[in-house]
Design goal:
Layout: H1 5-9, H2 11-23, H3 32-44, E1 48-53, E2 57-64, E3 70-76, H4 103-120, E4 125-132, H5 140-146, H6 149-152, E5 158-164, E6 172-173, E7 177-180, E8 182-191, E9 195-196, H7 206-217, H8 219-223, E10 231-239, E11 246-247, E12 250-259, H9 262-282, E13 286-295, E14 298-300, H10 302-316, E15 321-322, H11 334-340, E16 343-349, H12 368-382
Helix pairs in contact: 2-4, 4-12, 7-9, 10-12
Length: 386
């Protein structure tokens, strides 16, 4: 099956919506303008609209026929706190705000599917369109779940996607079971004793201790986590002091950890505290570790993985669907929804673009019809009319 004709016809509209979202990016839990546009469009097409689900989230509900079957389609809406480096005519107009992960396109494609489904009503059951805020590490999925997402809008299954740079437009990739890593953020504070830089013997240097903690931390994955289990620890920032000639009282490290198995998470958490406190003590300092799980591992259920892959193959051909892609060390908070409801998450090619979270990135408008058609066909097949 090619791209649905009616969705192909609204490709220019979806592109215009996407460009507008790109020009006016909003970060997590600040998506007031984006949510308002989404809600207004859904209402104009006849959806029952629920705003402020998980703070700035929106859910659109459309029931057709008499079946009790339900399905959820999810997209994310938030941008990133970074400066755009493109010269696109629709580039961001907001300082230090950019759609550098393609959530502008995710939102536009789900809106395209929403319009098509409202016009055709070629299904029997209830579709719940989930426009999620704050995916980028600030808890949007958890906020919607805490607001009773699946109690208020029951779903037999839930589906989502993400664009993938360096995968050709028109190609899909997925795998059953674990697909994306769990993710944590951590902060480590090391307290010493400040002194003049010319007289380090009069103080206790927390910067020196911090450097050794950062080095020792790399032994956790290489010497504690089984080699066959994927895990990553990255120190992404070390800071301390504000003068050339002053040894500060404190130094700080922060970073991220990734894993797939619960056992690996506990190894990382336990050994990070052990190493940080032990190494710091060895230098005469004290250390405090704040370790926060931000993302669960994303696990696709087998039946729903096969279902969404079959739908993708109808659209693009079996040769363009990789059903056993490599594991992904990046994380995605759709994982928390998949802990509650069966479902699957698929990647769709963004073509030869800059990587996500890069100031030169841009969502490829050519994939909008593929994504919108995927969303629409998931509904038409899962809730097929008799």
């Amino acid at each position: 099956m090619p791209i649905l004709d009616q969705i192909a016809n609204i490709h220019p509209e979806m592109t215009a919506w996407r460009h507008d979202f790109h020009t006016h990016p909003e970060v997590g839990f600040e998506e007031q303008r984006t949510s308002a546009i989404v809600a207004e469009k859904l209402a104009s097409w006849g959806y029952e609209v629920h705003r402020n689900v998980g703070k700035t989230g929106v859910v659109g509900r459309l029931k057709v026929g008499s079946s009790g079957r339900t399905i959820g389609l999810r997209c994310d809406m938030d941008a990133l706190p970074m400066q755009e480096a493109t010269q696109l005519p629709y580039r961001s107009k907001t300082e230090n705000r950019m759609h550098a992960c393609g959530h502008d396109g995710h939102t536009a494609s789900l809106l395209g599917a929403a319009q098509y489904l409202a016009e055709t009503k070629n299904f029997d059951g209830t579709v719940n369109l989930i426009f999620q805020p704050a995916e980028e590490g600030v808890g949007g999925a958890r906020a919607m779940l805490a607001d009773g997402l699946f109690e208020r809008f029951p779903c037999d299954a839930v589906f989502g996607y993400h664009n993938t740079p360096r995968l050709a437009v028109g190609k899909f990739s997925i795998r059953p079971g674990p697909m994306m890593a769990g993710g944590a953020f951590f902060d480590i504070r090391i307290e010493g004793k400040g002194s003049h830089g010319a007289h380090p013997e009069l103080g206790i240097d927390p910067v020196l201790a911090a450097c050794h903690v950062a080095t020792a931390m790399q032994s956790i994955v290489s010497r504690n986590v089984p080699a066959v289990d994927g895990a990553v620890i990255s120190i992404t920032r070390i800071e301390g002091g504000d003068a050339y000639n002053v040894i500060p009282n404190e130094a700080h490290l922060r970073g991220t950890a990734r894993w797939f198995k619960p056992e690996a998470l506990e190894i990382i958490r336990t050994n990070m505290k052990r190493i940080a406190t032990g190494v710091a003590t060895g230098f005469g300092c004290q250390a405090e570790v704040d370790f926060r799980v931000i993302f669960a591992p994303l696990v696709n259920t087998d039946a729903e993985t096969a279902f969404i892959a079959d739908v993708a193959a109808e659209i693009a051909g079996e040769a363009n669907v990789n059903r056993n892609r490599d594991l992904i060390m990046a994380s995605e908070d759709f994982s928390f929804m998949l802990e509650k409801v069966p479902g699957a998450y698929i990647n769709i090619g963004n073509g030869d673009s800059a990587p996500v979270h890069n100031p030169a990135y841009d969502y490829n408008d050519k994939l909008l019809p593929y994504a919108a058609t995927l969303y629409a066909r998931l509904v038409e097949k899962r809730l097929a009319a008799a």
